[in-house]
């Protein structure tokens, strides 16, 4: 029995049309004790989506329909599985106040939220760093080195943890080693452990948790969880809660990587954001 705390939905433009019902029925068949739907939250209205397909997040006008569908699913399946309403929130440097405003607006609906970095700024231009290996290679070229991309990404993750959204604070940090998605094509020959440990210290100090994300294990150019085992071990030394997430964008992706992640990892259930629920 385990909990999948990072699942996408048909509201995701780069996902699949698989229905909420098929996700939930599959979760039940897998024996999951709970599931959080964490669709990509709408991007700030003044932010230009840098993904080539302009499909990074759900549309703002779909928020109400998204939460309404989750209410329906909670009622329909309340006797069979726990379902939580969530969002994956992008931390975008320079757009913190826009993100804060979105969190204020959706907070009454949220049981859970993940704070993730997908967009990196290089020379005043944003890139969707995990879109594909071509975009990532362009980022390396524009930055001057692979190490510079990692440093940029890890610095952004650290800023996301340090930033305060006051009472509207997401409690989990998403896939903190997403920069390794294409590591088979862009092998790492430098040490970034200092930056990772600084992030873990900040996560611990803020009482946040980590997304133990199985998606990297099925990515052909990664084949490793986000984050890898050594980071998980360091997180556990600091008693940072670990929340397994499949990061599924299809029904087939539910539970992906779970049988490969480290068996000694002490996984837990996400804390409720609104404790009165």
From TrEMBL:
It holds the Pfam family PHP. Pathway: Amino-acid biosynthesis; L-histidine biosynthesis; L-histidine from 5-phospho-alpha-D-ribose 1-diphosphate: step 8/9. CDD domains: PHP_HisPPase_Hisj_like. This is Histidinol-phosphatase. Gene3D superfamilies: Metal-dependent hydrolases. The keyword Calcium does not apply. It comes from Fictibacillus barbaricus. Keywords: Amino-acid biosynthesis, Histidine biosynthesis, Hydrolase. It is an enzyme of class 3 (hydrolase). Coiled coil: none annotated. Its EC number is 3.1.3.15. It comes from the Bacteria. InterPro entries: Histidinol_P_phosphatase_HisJ (IPR010140), PHP_dom (IPR004013), Pol/histidinol_Pase-like (IPR016195). It catalyses: L-histidinol phosphate + H2O = L-histidinol + phosphate.
């Amino acid at each position: 029995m385990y909990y999948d705390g990072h699942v996408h939905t048909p509201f995701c433009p780069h996902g699949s049309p698989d229905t909420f019902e098929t996700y939930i029925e599959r979760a039940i068949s897998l024996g999951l004790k709970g599931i959080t739907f964490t669709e990509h939250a709408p991007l700030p209205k003044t932010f230009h989506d840098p993904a080539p397909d302009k499909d990074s997040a759900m549309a703002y006008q779909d928020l109400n329909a998204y939460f309404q569908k989750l209410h329906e699913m909670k009622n329909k399946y309340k006797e069979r599985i726990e379902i939580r309403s969530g969002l994956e929130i992008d931390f975008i440097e320079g757009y913190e106040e826009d993100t804060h405003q979105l969190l204020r607006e959706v907070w009454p609906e949220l049981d859970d939220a993940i704070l993730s970095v997908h967009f990196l700024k290089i020379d005043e231009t944003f890139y969707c760093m995990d879109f594909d290996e071509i975009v990532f290679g362009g980022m390396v070229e524009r930055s001057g080195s692979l190490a510079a991309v990692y440093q940029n990404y890890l610095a952004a993750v650290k800023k996301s943890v340090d930033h305060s959204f006051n009472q509207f604070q997401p409690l989990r940090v998403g896939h903190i080693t997403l920069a390794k998605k294409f590591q088979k094509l862009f092998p790492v020959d430098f040490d970034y452990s200092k930056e990772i440990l600084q992030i873990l210290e900040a996560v611990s100090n803020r009482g946040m948790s980590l997304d133990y994300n199985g998606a990297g294990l099925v990515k052909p150019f990664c084949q490793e969880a986000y984050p890898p085992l050594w980071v998980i071990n360091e997180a556990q030394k600091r008693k940072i809660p670990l929340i397994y997430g499949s990061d599924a964008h299809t029904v087939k992706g539910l539970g992906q990587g779970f049988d490969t992640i480290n068996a000694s990892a002490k996984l837990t259930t996400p804390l409720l954001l609104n404790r009165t629920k």
